[in-house]
Every structure is written in structure tokens, then in C-alpha cells.
Specification:
Mean pLDDT: 83
Helix content: 40-55%
Radius of gyration: 25 Å
Strand order of the largest sheet: 2-1-3-4
CATH superfamily of the largest domain: Nitrogenase molybdenum iron protein domain
Distance between the termini: 93 Å
Shape: globular
CATH topology of the largest domain: Rossmann fold
Strand content: 5-15%
Order of helices and strands: HEHEHEEEEHHEHEHEHEHH
Structural class: alpha/beta
Number of domains: 2
Low-confidence stretches: 20-32, 122-137
Number of helices: 10
């Protein structure tokens, strides 16, 4: 009988400890679940959100690292996550083709409505082919607006405002983090102005023209093989046009992006015996860049160094 009582006692103790463990696990789950979920479509938006929110929100970046923003299609599992989120912030301006026809249950913010957009040109040196062809082929604007640092400031203010509406108790924190991020952007913008103010060349060559906002602001030209569509295959006429531009502008380095094939641009580089390098348009970043902890500032500075060298700036 005594042994039986001892067994009962041990079982009660085990059950009690197990219940405590389960309660703690449930409590931790509730803490995570207690954070409102905010979903963001591009890396630039995600970078702003993570710097403003701290650890007060559960942030979900729609694009997996290393995937091109133009052609991505979310999985059903990800769509369910989007559907259950408190807020969805997407880039807009025709970038996310998958948005069409999707009915969001909760609040959404199309960030393109709060920035200054650049219309695609029908004439001129920078976009004289594939006009308006990108993403869902319906937009008449260049969707890469986050490369304009002034637009990133507008995004930052809007993001802070939205987060303060979700969690009013954290408004002071969000505004403090917002101001810190704005100071970083101010310094970054000043460095762009300074470094690109006096250059001996006025043209860069890329495979995909994601850089017209920067080029327009700092007064240089972008000659591209595939216009605004990263996956577009250049024609022989495109190749001849770019080779002519390289000769005319004495270009020594041409650029491509990490998420698209480098074969066309490498072919041109071999033909002309010049260098090839990578520019990062920041719609997304690579898995390697993510492992290094690189953010908008670090990558924009790396781009700036490459622009400066390619344009022979003083």
C-alpha cells in the first residue's frame, strides 16, 4: 500500500511539473501571438519597418531572400499569413503582380501613394525601349522609387504613423526610431550629393534599368539591355546599341543584378574587354547579404562607390 501511495505521489508531482511546463510554453506562444503581425512586400520596406518597430511587432517579409521582386508569386501558406496579419504594406506602382484580385481582410497600405513617382519616358536616352514593360505591364511609372532617398524618408514617416495606430502605447518609441532612421537617410543623401557632384562621365550600362530615380536626381544616364524587365532577352539590336554606347562613352565597367542571368551583360563585357560588377536595386537582397546583416544604408553606400568609380567622379 505504501509503495502504491508513493507511485501516486510521484505521478502527481510529474503531472504538476508537466502542467507548469505546458503553461510556460503556452505563455511564450501567447507572447509571440500577442505581437501584431505586419507583412511587407519588399526589402526596402522591411528595412524601414525593422528599424522603427524594434521587437514590438512580428514582421513578415513576403519575398524570400534571393528572389526577384518582379516575378514572385506567394505560396498558399504565405497568402494565409498575409490574410491574417494586422497590416499589409506593399510597394505598389505595379511591382507586385500577385496583388491583383487578392481581397485583403485587414488594413493595407500601398506605399506608392505616399511617395513621388517617376513616369516612364517615351523618348529620351534612358528608357527608349521596352517602354512601360515591367511587372504586370499595366503601370506607367517606374516602381523602383525607394532608390530615391527622399522617398525613403516619406516611407519612414508613413510607417511610423501606421505602427503608432496599431500600438499607440509605443508611439514615442516609433517616433524616436523614426528620427534616428531619418538622420541616417539625411547623411546618406548628403554623401550621394557630394560624391556624384563632379564626374567625368555621364553614362552607366546595366542589364535592367532599376536606377532611373538615382540617375535622374544626380544627372547621369542609364543605358540598359532589357529596359525595366529583368528577365527580358535583349535583341541583337539592343546588343549593338549598348556596345555603341560603351564605345562612345569610354565605359570600363558594366553592371547586372544578383537575381537575373548575367549571360547577356557578360557577353557584352567579353566583346568589349571590360569589367562586370553587381549593382543592388534593393527590391530584395541575396541570402548572403542577409547573413552579413546588410541593410538599406550599407547596400546604398556600396552602390554609391560603384556609381562613383564608373562615372569617374572626383
Amino acid at each position: 500500500m505504501k509503495d502504491f501511495r508513493n507511485i501516486i505521489f510521484v505521478l502527481v508531482v510529474v503531472l504538476f511539473l508537466l502542467q507548469m511546463f505546458v503553461s510556460k510554453s503556452d505563455s511564450k506562444k501567447q507572447e509571440v501571438q500577442g505581437k501584431p503581425t505586419v507583412v511587407l512586400s519588399t526589402f526596402a520596406l522591411y528595412d524601414v519597418a525593422s528599424n522603427i518597430s524594434g521587437d514590438t511587432l512580428e514582421l513578415v517579409k513576403i519575398l524570400p531572400f534571393g528572389v526577384d521582386a518582379h516575378s514572385f508569386e506567394p505560396t498558399p501558406k504565405l497568402m494565409a499569413k498575409i490574410d491574417s496579419s494586422k497590416l499589409v504594406v506593399y510597394s505598389g506602382a505595379g511591382l507586385e503582380a500577385w496583388i491583383d484580385g487578392f481581397n485583403f481582410k485587414n488594413k493595407t497600405v500601398d506605399m506608392s501613394k505616399f511617395v513621388t513617382l517617376r513616369q516612364l519616358e517615351t523618348k529620351g536616352h534612358t528608357e527608349h525601349h521596352h517602354h512601360g514593360e515591367h511587372c504586370n505591364h499595366k503601370s506607367s511609372v517606374d516602381p523602383h522609387y525607394w532608390l530615391d532617398i527622399e522617398n525613403m524618408k516619406r516611407i519612414t514617416y508613413k510607417m511610423s504613423e501606421e505602427f503608432s495606430m496599431i500600438l499607440p502605447k509605443n508611439k514615442n518609441l516609433y517616433e524616436k526610431n523614426r528620427d534616428s532612421y531619418i538622420r541616417m537617410l539625411d547623411k546618406l543623401e548628403n554623401d550621394y550629393k557630394s560624391k556624384l557632384s563632379s564626374c567625368n562621365r555621364d553614362t552607366i550600362v546595366v542589364n535592367h534599368n532599376a536606377f532611373s530615380y538615382i540617375a535622374d536626381k544626380y544627372k547621369f544616364h542609364v543605358e540598359s539591355l532589357s529596359g525595366f524587365i529583368p528577365e527580358a532577352q535583349p535583341s541583337p539590336k539592343d546588343m549593338i546599341r549598348v556596345i555603341t554606347s560603351i564605345k562612345d562613352n569610354n565605359i570600363s565597367t558594366i553592371f547586372f543584378e544578383s537575381f537575373v542571368s548575367d549571360k547577356p551583360i557578360v557577353s557584352v563585357a567579353k566583346e568589349m574587354d571590360i569589367k562586370v560588377d553587381v549593382l543592388q536595386p534593393l527590391g530584395n537582397i541575396t541570402a548572403d547579404e542577409a547573413k552579413k546583416g546588410l541593410g538599406y544604408e550599407e547596400i546604398m553606400r556600396d552602390n554609391l562607390d560603384k556609381f562613383s568609380k564608373a562615372l569617374k567622379c572626383q
